[in-house]
Design a protein that fits this description.
Chain A is α+β, with helices and mostly antiparallel strands and 410 residues long. Chain A is built from 10 helices and 7 strands. In chain A, 19% of the residues are buried. Mean pLDDT of chain B is 87; it is low at 225-231. Classes of the chains: A alpha+beta (410), B alpha/beta (231).
C-alpha cells in the first residue's frame, strides 16, 4: 500500500498495530481474570450459604435444590432487600465483591495508564520527528526564497512528502535558472541595443557624408547621381535591418501565431526564392530545386518562406560567381527535411556554433561587402523552432555548407 | 546554472601490470538546457563516463555533482531514488516493456514512483514526438525509430534534471537517426532539458549545443558555447 512507503509512517503504523494487539491481549487477560474471580466468589458464597443451612438441619436435598434453583420470586427479592442485599447496597457490604473491585482497580488502572503513556509518547515522537522534517524543509525553502540554493531538501526517500520535496527541488532549479536567465536577458538586451545602434549608425553616417558631398557640388550631375544612388543603398540597408528587427522582436514576444497547414513543398520553395532568382541570375549563380513534387509539409507558408529565403540569401552572400545552390527535400519516418546546400567557402569550425547568434560576424570573412546584417539566420532559426522544427548546419571548409530544416510530419 | 559538474573524474580497471585507465582526469560542466554530445571511438571510455555520471558505475576518484548534489556521498538506496527522480536514461536498445502500449510505456517511470500521470503532459509529449496516432500500439508494432521516440518520451515524462542517452541511434538507420537527434534537440529547447548523449557518429552532432571528444580516456571540449538561449 502506498501509505506505507514513507519510513516514518510505516514504523508508526507498525507501532499502532502492535499496540492494538497489546491492548486486545490485555483486555482478554483482564476479563479471564475477572471471570475466574467471579467463579471463586460464586463458589465461596454458595458454600457459605449451604454450610449454614446444613448446620441448621435443612435436609441435603432441599439445599441442593436451592443451589440449583434459577427462578427469582418477589418474596425472595423482598427478603434480600430486607437484609440489605439489593442494587442500592454499597460495595463494602459484600466483602467478596469489595476484594474483587480493589484488586481489579489496582491492576487495570496502572496497566491502562502505562499503555496510554506509551501511545502518547510514541505518537508525540512521531509528530516531533515529522515536525523536525518540516522545519528543516521550511528552512531550506526559506533559503531558496532568499536566493540561496546551496542546501537541498531531503528527497531521496520513499513516500508522498519526499515526492513533494522533490517537486519543490525542481521548482527551485527552475527558479534558479530563471534568475540566471533574467540576468542574461539584461546583458543580451544591452548588447542587442548597442548592436542595433551600431548597425544603424554606419549607414546613417554614410548618408550624412553623401549628403554633404551633394550639398557641396549641387551643379555636378554626375556626383549627385552617384551619391544619391549610394544614399538609396544605405537607406535600403537601414530599412532591411528595421524590418528584420521587427520580425525577430515579434517572434520573441510570442505575438506570432503560426498558421500551420499542409502545403506542397515545391510551392513553398518557389514562394521562398521568388525574389531571389533575379539576383542569382545577375550574379551568375544557379539555384537548383530538386525533390519529390508531391511531398507535403505542415507549416506556416509565409514565415517558413521567409526562413528559407533568408538561408538562400545567406548562401548567395557566401558563394562566388558560378556558385550553385541546391534545394532538396526528403521524407523521413517522422519528419520532412529541406536542405539548402551551397558550394561556397564553407564556415570555419570556430564560427559554426555562433552563426545563429544575432549580429554575429565571422572574423574570417575578408570581403566585408558580402556580409549581411547578421539577422537572417537567427530569424530563420526562430521561425523554424517556433514551429517545433529543428535547424542544423553542416559545413566543410572550401567545399560548401548545408543547412537542414526539419519539420515534424504528424 | 550548472546541472552537471564533473570534477577530476578517474576510472581505472584492474591492478598492477594489467591496469587500464578508462578515464583520466575528466572535468566539465553542463548548464541547464544544454544538449551536449560526447563522441569517440568504441573503447575510448565514453560509455564508462556515462555510466559513472548515471551512478551505474563507481569512479576510482573524482566527484560528480548533479544539481549540486554529490551522487557518491549517498547510500545505495538514496542513490537509486535520486536517480529515479532526477536522471532519465535512453538506451541504444530502447528497453521498452513489450506488454505495455506506447502511452503506458511513457508513463511507466511515474508509476514506479507512485505518481499520478498528468495526461495533458503525456499528450504534449506524444505530439512533440509525432506519436499521437500510435499511442495504443505495442512496441512490437512499431519501427525502431518509433520505439526510440517512445523511449525519449519515457525519459522526458518525469522532467528529470539530466537525460543520459547512450548511443540512442546505434540501432537505427541514418534517416531515423537524424529524426531521433532532431526530436531530442526540440525536446531540449522546449523543456530546457539538459541532455548528455554519447555517439560514435560525428555527423549527428550538427544541431547540438556542445561537442566533447573522448579519446583514450581524455576528454576535450570541441567547442560550441551555450546555444542562444533567447532565440
Amino acid at each position: 500500500m502506498s501509505l506505507f512507503q514513507d519510513k516514518q509512517v510505516r514504523w508508526y503504523c507498525f507501532f499502532l498495530i502492535f499496540f492494538s494487539i497489546l491492548l486486545l491481549g490485555m483486555n482478554v487477560m483482564c476479563s479471564i481474570n475477572q471471570v475466574n474471580y467471579a467463579k471463586e466468589i460464586y463458589i465461596s458464597n454458595n458454600g457459605a450459604i449451604a454450610s449454614y443451612l446444613l448446620e441448621k438441619g435443612i435436609s441435603r436435598e432441599v439445599v441442593a435444590d436451592a443451589l440449583a434453583n434459577s427462578k427469582v420470586s418477589e418474596t425472595g427479592k423482598e427478603l434480600l432487600a430486607m437484609v440489605g442485599i439489593d442494587h442500592r447496597a454499597a460495595y463494602h457490604k459484600f466483602p467478596y465483591l469489595d476484594k474483587l473491585r480493589k484488586s481489579s482497580l489496582y491492576v487495570t488502572i496502572p496497566i491502562s495508564l502505562l499503555l496510554v503513556l506509551v501511545l502518547l509518547s510514541v505518537t508525540s515522537l512521531f509528530f516531533w520527528r515529522r515536525k523536525q522534517l518540516f522545519l528543516q524543509a521550511d528552512k531550506v525553502i526559506g533559503d531558496y526564497i532568499n536566493g540561496d540554493f546551496s542546501h537541498h531538501l531531503p528527497q531521496n526517500s520513499e513516500g508522498a512528502i519526499y515526492q513533494v520535496f522533490s517537486s519543490v527541488e525542481r521548482l527551485a532549479t527552475m527558479l534558479k535558472s530563471k534568475m540566471e536567465t533574467e540576468h542574461k536577458i539584461k546583458e543580451f538586451l544591452k548588447n542587442t541595443i548597442s548592436d542595433i545602434s551600431h548597425q544603424l549608425k554606419t549607414p546613417l553616417a554614410a548618408i550624412a557624408m553623401y549628403q554633404e558631398i551633394i550639398d557641396a557640388e549641387p551643379g555636378n550631375t554626375e556626383t549627385v547621381k552617384e551619391f544619391s544612388a549610394k544614399i538609396g543603398a544605405s537607406l535600403n540597408r537601414m530599412e532591411q535591418l528595421i524590418q528584420l528587427m521587427l520580425k525577430i522582436t515579434r517572434l520573441d514576444a510570442g505575438s506570432i501565431v503560426f498558421e500551420k497547414r499542409y502545403y506542397s513543398v515545391p510551392e513553398l520553395i518557389s514562394n521562398s526564392i521568388n525574389e531571389l532568382t533575379a539576383r542569382a541570375r545577375k550574379e551568375h549563380k544557379q539555384i537548383i530545386v530538386d525533390g519529390d513534387p508531391r511531398q507535403q509539409i505542415f507549416c506556416d507558408m509565409e514565415w517558413t518562406s521567409e526562413a528559407i529565403g533568408n538561408i538562400v540569401k545567406n548562401a548567395l552572400d557566401h558563394t562566388g560567381s558560378g556558385g550553385v545552390i541546391r534545394i532538396t527535400w526528403e521524407q523521413t519516418p517522422a519528419m520532412v527535411r529541406i536542405s539548402v546546400t551551397d558550394n561556397g567557402d564553407g564556415i570555419a569550425p570556430e564560427d559554426i556554433y555562433h552563426i545563429f547568434k544575432r549580429f554575429y560576424r565571422s572574423k574570417n570573412i575578408k570581403n566585408m561587402k558580402t556580409t549581411g546584417i547578421g539577422l537572417g539566420l537567427p530569424l530563420a532559426k526562430s521561425i523554424v523552432e517556433g514551429q517545433g522544427g529543428v535547424i542544423s548546419v553542416q559545413s566543410e571548409r572550401h567545399h560548401g555548407t548545408t543547412f537542414t530544416l526539419s519539420f515534424l510530419t504528424e | 546554472m550548472d546541472i552537471l559538474e564533473v570534477k577530476n573524474l578517474c576510472k581505472t580497471y584492474g591492478m598492477g601490470e594489467s591496469k587500464v585507465d578508462a578515464l583520466k582526469d575528466v572535468s566539465f560542466t553542463l548548464k541547464k538546457g544544454e544538449f551536449a554530445a560526447v563522441v569517440g571511438e568504441s573503447g575510448s571510455g565514453k560509455s564508462t563516463l556515462l555510466n559513472c555520471i548515471g551512478a551505474l558505475d563507481n569512479p576510482t576518484s573524482g566527484t560528480i555533482l548533479v544539481d549540486g548534489q554529490n551522487l557518491f556521498s549517498m547510500n545505495e538506496e538514496e542513490r537509486t531514488i535520486f536517480r529515479r527522480r532526477n536522471i532519465g536514461f535512453i538506451f541504444q536498445s530502447f528497453q521498452l516493456v513489450p506488454e505495455l502500449n506506447v502511452e503506458q510505456n511513457i508513463i511507466f517511470p511515474l508509476l514506479l514512483d507512485y505518481r499520478k500521470p498528468d495526461y495533458a503532459a503525456v499528450n504534449e509529449i506524444l505530439e512533440l514526438l509525432g506519436l499521437t496516432q500510435r499511442r495504443r500500439h505495442l512496441p512490437s508494432q512499431l519501427s525502431g525509430g518509433q520505439q526510440q521516440r517512445v523511449a525519449i518520451g519515457r525519459a522526458l515524462i518525469t522532467k528529470p534534471k539530466l537525460i543520459l542517452a547512450d548511443e540512442p541511434t546505434g540501432n537505427l538507420d541514418s534517416k531515423n537517426s537524424q529524426d531521433v537527434i532532431d526530436l531530442l534537440t526540440t525536446a531540449s529547447r522546449r523543456y530546457q532539458q539538459t541532455i548528455l548523449m554519447i555517439t560514435h557518429n560525428k555527423n549527428l552532432t550538427t544541431s547540438v549545443d556542445r561537442v566533447f571528444r573522448v579519446s583514450d580516456g581524455i576528454l576535450t571540449d570541441l567547442g560550441g558555447a551555450v546555444n542562444e538561449a533567447l532565440s
